[in-house]
Write a structure and sequence with these properties.
Layout: H1 3-18, H2 27-40, E1 45-51, E2 56-62, E3 67-69, E4 86-88, H3 108-113, H4 123-134
Antiparallel strand pairs: 1-2, 2-3, 3-4
Length: about 140
């Protein structure tokens, strides 16, 4: 299946499950059956669950390591940058909160000291996340 076919397949499946409703909190309801159907269609993949801190998130890992995330847009309430179906290299949504590659919550010590890597996430992220952690009193 080509990338374009994969995105179209996932998009149509997502629409069938969501019926035009928002994707917020629907990652398991979309990803698990989609991964099963993809497997039956010859696409090697597996669902991955990550802990983002305030919530968990489920996405599909393809055999080549790329992410297929049929509900990435549920996180657009914070940053309007994710398509409804994301296909590509793993991004911040696909790493646990304890992983330093997750710029939202990773590397807790850096967040506490205000030295967290937040480039590319915008001023909203810097002021809303990094600075409040930097203002905490050391324990």
């Amino acid at each position: 299946m080509t990338d374009a076919e994969l995105i179209e397949f996932a998009s149509e499946f997502r629409e069938g499950i969501l019926g035009g409703k928002p994707s917020r909190f629907m990652c398991a309801a979309v990803s698990w059956p989609l991964a099963s159907l993809l497997g039956l269609s010859g696409v090697q993949c597996e669902c991955v669950e990550v802990d983002l801190g305030d919530c968990n998130h489920i996405w599909i890992k393809l055999a080549d390591g790329r992410a297929l995330d049929p509900t990435a847009d549920q996180f657009n309430m914070m940053w309007d940058k994710y398509p409804p179906v994301y296909l590509g290299e793993r991004i911040e949504l696909h790493y646990d909160c304890t992983d330093e590659r997750n710029p939202w919550t990773g590397n807790a010590k850096a967040m506490e000291t205000g030295t967290a890597k937040t480039e590319g996430l915008g001023a909203e992220h810097d002021s809303a996340v990094a600075k409040p952690f930097a203002q905490k009193e050391p324990s």
